Amino acid sequence: MRDVVEIGLGKTAQRGYHLDDIAIVPTRRTRDVDDVSTAWQLDAYKFGIPCVAHPSDATMSPATVAELGKAGGLGILNVEGLWTRYEDPSKQLLSLKDSASPTATLQELYSEPIKPELIAERVREIRSHDVTVAVRVSPQHTLKLAPVILDAGVDLLVIQGTLVSAEHVSTVDEPLNLKEFIADLDLPVIVGGCTNYQTALHLMRTGAAGVIVGIGADDLSSTDNVLGIRVPMATAIADAAAARRDYLDETGGRYVHLIADGDVHTSGDIAKALACGADAVMLGMPLTLMANTPAGGLWWHPSASHPKLPRGHVGSIEDAHPVPLEKLLFGPSDDASGSLNLFGGVKRAMAKCGYRDLKEFQRVGLMLDR
Prior knowledge:
The structure is a single chain. It contains 13 helices and 14 strands. The chain has 370 residues and is α/β, with parallel strands linked by helices. It is 32% helix and 15% strand.
């Protein structure tokens, strides 16, 4: 039974847990790390590691999307970002480093109109590297940009906002009907974020191949301060996993992948997110350690450039030094914080608990230790 706390005579609240609140409990068996696989598959697309890049212009350019794809992950380009507004956004990205007001600068940079021809050009750039092509669009711009995106020939479409529901109510605009939209497509769609069982189940019923769980919160996010919304990720993932189990029974076997987005900083965080039921994690700020990122180590969440209500700051990881992507993902590491060798650490955690693959690892025991 869910732990419900009375916070006053007229209101109760459900207790939720963050990834920091839980610990993985090894079982009676251990396994050789070389016998462990971190591979997963979404529809027809196979990936060597459960890593999905957050579609921020700070880390994801056509070049870095391709680099991550070749390393076994899934890079996602934001088709509402700087790469589809400017022919070469290098100058604009450089201006952020010296800006006295980074948020105002971001708002100004993102006021440039999106150029449809650049969407097709960026997709061609990524396609030329022979990796899975995935792009992100916000729910409010999906209907407008979908024809251009689909004509460009992407493999995966990601419809992502801070919060996404299967039923958006509006008396001003024609809302996006996710179920009808996805039914008309012949490519897999990932949608989110969501924060609870009910929303996750409704998003699964739209026909989505994957659901993003969480709101992408990190050290620079201000969604809590601006909107009062904070997501305890361990509980959110576990709730969405329960929705997936019920949807699996409801449909007679249709499996929807869960991608955890938020509160993930180290290899231990990734392992705990997978243990709670996620199939992959969406990495944002941790990828700023990657050498040759577009913004040179700066990070911002896509919502940080909102023209009226920004929710995030421009910043970087303190005392960070750029490293090759190979070292960031697979080591070797000379840093004991868990911020390097991210998926080498995950493999080691799986081996210590005796599991061969990610699906098995979702059954690992957990304990509250805070």
